[in-house]
Structures are given as structure tokens and as C-alpha cells.
Amino acid sequence: MAKFIGAIVVDTEKCKGCGLCVVACPTKVIELARDVNGKGYHYAHMANAAACIGCSSCGLVCPDTVITVYRTKAS
Amino acid sequence: MTATTELKNIINEENVVYKKTSVLLDNEMHYCPGCTHGVIHKAIAEVIDDMDIQEKTIGVSPVGCSVLAYNYLDIDWQQAAHGRAPALATATSRLMPEKYVFTYQGDGDLASIGCAEIMHACNRGESIVVFFVNNAIYGMTGGQMAPTTLEGQVTATSPYGRDCQTTGFPMRISEMLAMLPGTRFVTRESAETPGAVRKLKKAIRKGFENTRENKGISFIEIVGTCSSGWKLSPVKSNEWMKENMFPYYPLGTLKDE
Ligand SMILES: Cc1ncc(C[n+]2csc(CCOP(=O)(O)OP(=O)(O)O)c2C)c(N)n1
Ligand code: SF4
Ligand code: SF4
Ligand code: SF4
Ligand SMILES: [Mg+2]
């Protein structure tokens, strides 16, 4: 079976730091940043980018729909 | 390849597998962090996009936190007086049967002040879809007890926990409505995991498709959270919901004819 690799881009200024994407990720890619965005929220970011498989779980559960997911076959 | 060049290769327009649908507007949602309303809005928007019915869909928003839903989904909208969305939706779908008409209502809106309204719309079997967001509380007004509040649940107006001896019992609205001949599809869903969101989207599609056939109303309850009203973090709210709401409000389809 082809192996997939993925990545996410979070619109950090619109993220509300709810953490729902963190628990939805099956490979523990996402963490909330120590820094805060303009609204004062600890935004989500890829802390472990290499583990992302592009499954879209985080995107589906994000209430503010601020995650874009990318996926491609591993070379 | 270094990690950064590899990332750059992945983050590329042609590799996009999930992004915000254009049916969702760019306006930032006013909801609290983690609010289920946002996930439900997104699920509805994605189905409207998949079905290519953006120009043919009319929503009726309620009074409650989701009163501003019209700022978030790029479709036609009306906004109803508290609890009266089913009446507006009835008129709209009867006058414009070619449209896909839905109401979007909270549990205070639908189960309390609008209880008679929804009963009769369901009894008449209107060709509409109803989204019933059950977060067991009045979110917008500061977390007061709703008819759906669980026994013992602490709210602003039940500070020692809901006492069913004096306030009655939490109402299972979907079960009540499923008994009416006018309902065709009654289901209880949730939106806390990717799997639950996918299931919810299937139910939404079925609801919209049902409106083409004039065979009764589709009622989709979504058990959700209100982290501000419940005074828990969004993640803890989902856990509380699974532990306390799901046993009393079991998920699954009650009726599908
Ligand atoms: C006629 C009328 N009565 C009362 C109110 C006050 N009010 C506003 S929202 C609301 C309840 C909202 O609760 P719910 O429908 O559960 O929505 P949520 O905010 O929890 O999503 C009430 C009682 C009102 N706006 N209009
Ligand atoms: S796409 Fe899947 S693996 Fe990648 S961060 Fe999101 S949930 Fe995790
Ligand atoms: S689910 Fe969305 S809003 Fe919540 S922390 Fe993740 S990216 Fe931010
Ligand atoms: S008060 Fe509750 S229902 Fe309203 S936006 Fe906040 S979390 Fe959502
Ligand atoms: Mg409510």
C-alpha cells in the first residue's frame, strides 16, 4: 500500500485554541503554541510535522474551519 | 531532502485534500472556542456544496447563539422570532417548493418556547429539514436550565443541580416527534469526532434529499456542547457529553421511512 505523507496549515489568527484538533489527530501532530495570537488564544500548530498522514481528522472537527490539509504519496 | 523542503513540496495547491468550503463565508464566527455550532455549520455547508444546492437553499435561524448563522453560510436566510422557525420554514417551503428549506434551532428555542411550533410542523409533515442543537442549556443568555438539561446538572438557574421533582424531567424531543406520522426521518447525531461528523453529513444529505419527495419532515438532533455554559474546557466538555448526555440521549436513527 502506498504510504501517504501530509501537512496542515492553520490560519493562526483565526484559531481559537480550543484544542479539539489536538485530540482528534491520530498521530499526535498538533499542539497548542506557547505563544498567543492577536486574540490571545494559544493557536494550534504542527509540533511533530513528520508524523502527519494528511487524514483530515483535524480539519473535520475544527469548529472554526481554519485548517487546510495537504496530502501526497511518499516519494 | 531537508524537513522544510519536504514540507514545501507537500504544501502545494494540488495536494489539498481538505479546505474550507466556499459555502462558508470568511467572517470569523462569534462562537466560543470549541462550540459545536461551528462544526454543525461547517457540516451543513459542506453538504450544500457537495449537493450543489447553494442557490436553492433557504435557512431559518433561531433566537439563541446561532441567531447569526446567516453571517456564516452563504445561502439565503430568514431569522425567526424565538421558537417560530418552523412556521417561517413552513410558509417558505410551501410557497417555494423548489427550494431546500431548513430550520436551525437550539434546545431552548425548539424544546421550550417553540415546543408547540415544532410539534405541529412535524405533525403536518412539512417538507423541511430541522436541525435541533441540543446542548442541554440556554447558551446565549448565560447558561440557564433548558427542558433538555439533565437531572442534577448545574446551570445558572439550577445551582444545586436540576431537581426533577420541581422542574420536570429532561425531554427526549426526538423520541416524542418520531411518534408523529408526519415525521419521515428522525435521527440523533453528534459532532465531536471525525467519524461523528461524517455520519452527521450523511444524515444532513438524506434530510435535504427527502425534501424533494413531500413525504414528511426530516428531524436531525445533534447532541453538542456549550463549554461556556457548562464551565468546562472544550475538550472536557466533549468528555462530559459522552459520559452524561449520550446515555440519556442515545445516538442513532429513530425513524427512516
Ligand atoms: C421572546 C423571547 N424570549 C426570551 C428571549 C431570551 N433568549 C434568547 S436566547 C434564549 C435561549 C437560547 O437557548 P438555546 O435555544 O438552547 O440556544 P443556544 O444559545 O444554547 O444555542 C432565550 C431564552 C428572547 N430573545 N425572546
Ligand atoms: S491531517 Fe491527520 S495526521 Fe495530519 S495533523 Fe490533521 S489529524 Fe493529524
Ligand atoms: S480545532 Fe481549530 S480552532 Fe480549535 S485549536 Fe484546532 S485549529 Fe484552532
Ligand atoms: S455560549 Fe455555549 S452555545 Fe453559545 S457560543 Fe458559547 S459555547 Fe456555543
Ligand atoms: Mg441550547
TrEMBL record, chain A:
InterPro entries: 4Fe4S_Fe-S-bd, 4Fe4S_Fe_S_CS, Fe-S_Ferredoxin. GO terms for molecular function: 4 iron, 4 sulfur cluster binding; metal ion binding. It holds the Pfam family Fer4_7. It comes from the Bacteria. Keywords: 4Fe-4S, Iron, Iron-sulfur, Metal-binding. Residues 6-35, 43-72 form the 4Fe-4S ferredoxin-type domain. This is 4Fe-4S dicluster domain-containing protein. It comes from Ancylomarina euxinus.
UniProtKB/TrEMBL annotation, chain B:
Residues 70-222 form the Thiamine pyrophosphate enzyme TPP-binding domain. The keyword Oxidoreductase applies. Keywords: Oxidoreductase. GO terms for molecular function: oxidoreductase activity, acting on the aldehyde or oxo group of donors, iron-sulfur protein as acceptor; thiamine pyrophosphate binding. It comes from the Bacteria. GO terms for biological process: cellular respiration; small molecule metabolic process. InterPro entries: 2-oxoacid:Fd_oxidoreductase, THDP-binding, TPP_enzyme_TPP-bd. The keyword Cell inner membrane does not apply. This is 2-oxoglutarate oxidoreductase. It comes from Ancylomarina euxinus. The lineage of its organism: Bacteria, Pseudomonadati, Bacteroidota, Bacteroidia, Marinilabiliales.
